[in-house]
Every structure is written in structure tokens, then in C-alpha cells.
# Entry
Amino acid sequence: MTDDARVYEQARWSDDNRYEPLLNEKDETTVDTDTSLPDDLTRDTLTLPDADEPVVARHYTRLSQENYGVDSGPYPLGSCTMKYNPKFTEDLAARDDASVHPSREETAQGTLAVMDRLQKHLARIGGMDAVTLQPPAGAAGEFTGILVARAYHRSNGDERSEVIVPDTAHGTNFASAAMAGYDVVELPSGDDGRVDVDALRAAVSDETALFMMTNPNTLGLFERDVREVADIVHDAGGLLYYDGANLNALLGRARPGDMGFDIMHYNLHKTFAAPHGGGGPGAGPVGVTDELAPFLPSPRVRETDEGYEFYEPAETVGKVHGFHGNWLVLLKAYAYIERLGDAGMRDTSGKAVLNANYLAEQVDYDVPYGPPHHEFVASAGERDALEVAKEMLDHGVHPPTTKWPEIVDEALMTEPTEAETKEALDRVAAAFNGTRDSNADDAPQNTTARRVDQTEAARNPRLSWHALDDG
Ligand SMILES: *Cc1c(COP(=O)(O)O)cnc(C)c1O
# Structure
């Protein structure tokens, strides 16, 4: 057996059920509760799992082995940038003195100093003038950026009703603009998969508040005409928004601010290696030009002669999240940026692009648009992309993002990241190519969980064993 044919499999039980049982399915015990809290707020008894420490330790170890994550193997989920999360940032975030809540200036000077430095790093990396760390995710950053744009237009006595979004954009761009109350104008891409400048020229008007752009776009293509795009949008009185989810391709090489963007968000949990997944905490700081800084969320942090302080920007849109965002995510990203330095960040984007190009060459599926930057979109062609993805699970890797962007038929959107070795990339290629001549529709066979009902899971999530009990 060649090395590429070896498959890492998740742990599972040998019966049909496969899963580790819940702790309370083993043994339960009922204990009396006795507290000084008011009777109408407390129970008299509480039913708990009856398990001693070794049972609990094995339970959680087995659960971790039933999972698949970026610490188990390649995770080339396109657009999500599931890069390896270095452990030194986890160690820092786990320190007792790291988890100070930055709620009061006097007691949190060190925390505020880190926030101030991170703001400055991000501003420099993006070519922006001012940064807020408050938004807790990329989508929340988009929403914040759109609120800032609206406040800016209103301060000029200018009510505008439209946000223009390319058809290759992430779904959150459409949703954020609609949530902020704008009409969303979808811009069809040109034949080369990039923004069609003539179509944009026809779409902009004095109703255009914002044009949202991702660069490289979600096909992994660099938008070459961005200076011209900026002129078209600015001439119409609109603002230009950079969706920073793909910044990993440009890190240390090109800056959205230099391209003419007015507002951008950063996905710290993508580009700057903070862990994410399962909807877990992220951070979506927003950078803006000087002109837009007065509208940023409050409070902001700044350095003064006496130390660091909070202040309220003159025309702030208000708060978009409790306190100052997800502080420990911010700390991990700060540590990552400091450790890598400018040369390390430049190296990151170079390797991310090299890895994507190498993998695209190894894959036997058609890649209709290219050459790619940090990600590429292959087409499953005659096959259903979801079936290919499910089959890749049986080859022991996490599959790509499927069926998006929609301008590629049966899309398999693949982003290996800079963190993978050549051996790991070859393993992903072998997984892709192993599905090439198959027509299976009952994969995966070898994973702990087989087909789950994705619609039911999204619409009626049962998040505790109480919900299971209730049927
Ligand atoms: C991930 C992503 C977003 C949204 O970011 P979240 O942090 O998941 O909310 C927006 N645009 C693109 C292109 C993305 O890949």
C-alpha cells in the first residue's frame, strides 16, 4: 500500500450506533441541592451523570477522537481559511492573567495596550487609518462597516438606498446589506470570473451607498481593475468595501487601502490563525479611512501621554458588541502577528498561493478559472459536488466547500492554506482523484457520523440531552 492510499479514520464503536453514548445514558444519580438562593429560582434535587473521573476522562477523549479538525489532518475548506492554529497563542490565551476583562481603564492598562497595538498592526497591514476591534465575526464586521458607510452618507445629507455586490460574493455580503436596510444589487461577473467594469459602470448611480468587493475574489482570482473600480464608485459618490476574508493571499504584499478601498473587515480567525469552526468565537475588526473614523463603534481605545483610555468617536454608530469584542481571539491574533513579523506574514501569503497552485495542478477535476491565488474552484462536472465531498471523507481528509460560488458548476472550492506540507497536499489530491471514476452515493462509510440530515440539523438543532429526551 502506498502512503497516499493510507487513510486516517476517526474512532467509532463497532455497533451500528457508532457514537460514544452520552454520559447520562450510562448511570445517573439524583442529589439534593441546598443553596442560599431563593426557593422559586432553584430546584430541590438535581439529576447528574454518575461517573467517576476515569470514566469521564475516557468519555471526553473518545469524543475528541470521533471528531475531525485542523489538528487531525488537512482541512481545505475554501474561503474559510482553516489554517493550523499554533499552540503558543493558545498557551498565551490560557494564562490566568490573560483573561482580564478590559472593562475598566485603570485595571486593564496592559490589555488596552495590546488592543491599541493590534489596531495599529491591522491598520498598517490593511493600509487603513483607524481600526475597531469590536465586531465578533466577519459578517458582523460587514454589518458594522455598512452602518459606518450609512452614517457617513447621512452626515453629508445623503440618503442612498443601494449596495452593489458581485455574484461571486459570500452570502453574508448580501445578508449584511439587507439587514442594514439596503436594496442589494447583484452584479454579474465577466467571462473571466472577475468584476465586469462596464456592468459596474452601468449599475452605479447616486443611489449607490457602497460597492462590496472581495480580492482575490472567491474564485481565487485577483481583481486587476480595482483602481478603475474605485474611481467608478467614488465618482458616483459611493464608498468601496473590502471583504477581507481572503486577505491570506495578499498578506505582507498588497494593501486594500492602497487599492482605493475605504472600509474593510479582517477575519482574525482566518488570516491570523485564531481557531474557528462550529460557529465558535471569532473576531472581525473593521478598518476605515480617516474620513470615516468618527463613525466607528464606541468605545474606542487610544494611547495618551498618561496611558491608554477609552473614548467615544464623535459621530459613532454606537456599540455593535459587548465590551470590546472577543478579547482572547484578539490576543491570539496579536501574538501571531508579533511572532511572524512582516517577513513571516509575507512568507505566509507566498506559501498559501504556492500550495493552492500546486494542488490545483494535481487535481484531476477541471478548474475553469485561473490561475488561482490562495484557493481554486474545481468543478465536479457530471457528478454532484456534495457526493464527491462525502466520498473524500472516506479518503481521510476534510472536503472542500461545495456548490459555491455558483458560477462554477458543482463547485469544489479548495483552500489548502500555507500550513500544509507537500505530503499533506498529495494526500488531498489523492482524495480528490480517488473519487474521479466512482459513482457512489452512499459515502461516507468510514466516519463516525455518516449522513446527517443537514436541513433538520440547521432548522431544529437539539443542543442538549433534554431536547433529545423531549423527542
Ligand atoms: C468567511 C467569510 C465571510 C464571513 O466571515 P465570518 O467570520 O464567517 O462571519 C465573508 N466573506 C467571505 C469571502 C468569507 O469567506
Q: What stands out?
A: Residues 327-362 form the longest helix (36 residues). The mean pLDDT is 93. The CA atoms of residues 110 and 308 lie 9 Å apart. The radius of gyration is 24 Å.
